[in-house]
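Final paragraph of the annual report: two paired records, presented back to back.
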Amino acid sequence: MNRRTFLSVSAGATLAACSQSPAPEAPRPPNIIWIMADDLGWAHLGSYGQTEIRTPRLDALAQQSLRFTNAYAGCTVCAPSRSSLMTGLHTGHTPVRGNSGGLPLPAGAVTVAETLRQAGYATGCFGKWGLGGEGTEGVPNRQGFDEFLGPLHQIPHHEFTVPAEDFDAYAGKYQEQPFIREDRGFVVQPQPAAAFAGMVTRLDRQVGALLDKLEALGLAENTVVFFTSDNGSVEFPPIANAFHGTGVFRGFKTDLYEGGIRVPMLVRWPGKVTPGVSDYPWAFYDFLPTAAEIAGAEPPPGLDGQSILPTLLGQGQEPPALLYWEAGPARAVRLGDWKAIRPGPDAPIELYDLAHDPGETTDVAAQHADLVAGAEKILNAQHVDPPQLVEPGWP
């Protein structure tokens, strides 16, 4: 392989990039692979405390990686989380804010793929896209990707179909409730918990196969691998009750509580990133500037994210001043260990001390009026109306 590569892979999508080899005397920038599972909760991996679902290859990857305990998705649902990842902008600024499906990235968006391609990388995305359908400016080949394979829309990827070899390992073990969405054309799954567990174990095996291929090709030492999930775990009772995928955290996918946005995050770069555990807080929109710095590329101006490369290299850096999210009318901001949430436009702001209350069980807004007032200003200031309307009924 004579070009550096950036790949994005997800159970929804994988991103990857590769670039033209520099002059022999120049150090070769690494390949970059971003692997993103779909609806995988913070605690669905053994390395984050899971005991029911078998994830041996991802647990081994965690031992070789810097494992983050305070990493966040771009949003609490799929499409806006991906939009934040691609653009380096939080959900108060990124173009796609809704999960209706089909809302495209506009032509003017500058993605991580475009940024790396301008630095000579070959780019590929494999899996669910969800940021623009056929005939729009949002399709991957108009957003910086040389190669794409996967569904453009969000619906066809649905995770409750799993090959028998993986399903059978978990069948009959859990209290089940059939999953039926006839209005969406989904097939009935009589054992959704077993199906979910089987799919996660299958994902684990496939990630292992990818890592094995890197070794076989002699590319592992010069490849940065990120593994994460696009948002928190689903609330569907059989899955939530069987696997407790949000861990100690409150909420699920669609919520701006920690269970909806805090995600597993593993970063492996042999010889560069020292394996261990980090509580450094960061979010998907930090990936674009991080990838740009790794690649020696120039990031676009006006990003909300910052490079976390110093943290990856063990050099230390100041935590971000704030982390911000929107989900429809709801907004949230993390300021150090404080987390402020406004569940709706007319709802009072809730305040939580994540250092002492990571499960967000006790709203302390009444005891900290000054912090609430400051958070309210930030929640208002960080929002810019999106360039396109969110479809009715979101999410």
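The closing record of the year follows.
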Amino acid sequence: MNVKQLIEKNHDYIISMRREFHRHPELSCQEERTSRRIREELDKMGIFNTVVGNRNVVGIINPGAEGKHIAIRGDSDALLVTEETGLPFASENPGVMHACGHDGHAAILLGIGKSLQEIADQLPGSVFLCFQIAEEIGKGADEIVAYLKENGGVDQVISTHLMSWLPLGGITIPDGPVASGFCLFNIKVKGTGGHGSRPHLAVNPLMPASEILLKIAAIPTNRHNAFDTCVVSPCAINGGNKSNIIPETAEIIGSIRSFKYGDAQKIMDVMKT
């Protein structure tokens, strides 16, 4: 039986696991049930597995084998979104939903493991199945990378991401970067609080915060190489909660995304100036 036939054989299994994960979504660093179920499934397949760091799970097909070492990675955390699809397998966790495809990623990786384990004796090396937690908040990956290094490293890492805009059943393998790296930023502006009727006696932090927001959003256009794609996305500005009180502080939070290694740090350096 070839790999294609094995995947087709496990087609229904992958769908059932995806729907189970979708029904029971968990937020970043809270993937207790998800990680437990992943380990239970790997145990059923006879695949050695271990918890790495917080709740990351790494399964190994042919541990210690000579030859190539390949890592295949999938994430498993959900988002703070209320599901209103009405699907029979809709989220049972109020306010939390798999809205970014990570239920599918975890299920696909289990399906890959199930299929490859059946032909483990034909594989010219080891396969590391890396189930990453907390991808949405930029955690989990470092722990897995450290684990892989401690265990001899790998020759190649393979990953995928579900894309809703592709035709059903379609795949794309572009040349060059596919997904960006990112980092988060948090800017606090301190002023002097006061009453709205006496703004001259206060220092309103919302004014400079607004100017800062506009300037940092324009950094990729005005201060960065146009051939190296990156974006600065201010995603929230918070300050005060009363219509007649000037707040003491204002806060801007957001993210920086870039394809080229080191570009995010360059943007951060510009922001600090």
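Strands lie at 48-52, 56-61, 68-75, 125-132, 156-159, 181-190, 194-195, 230-238, 245-246, 249-258. This concludes the annual technical report; the extension proposal builds directly on these records.
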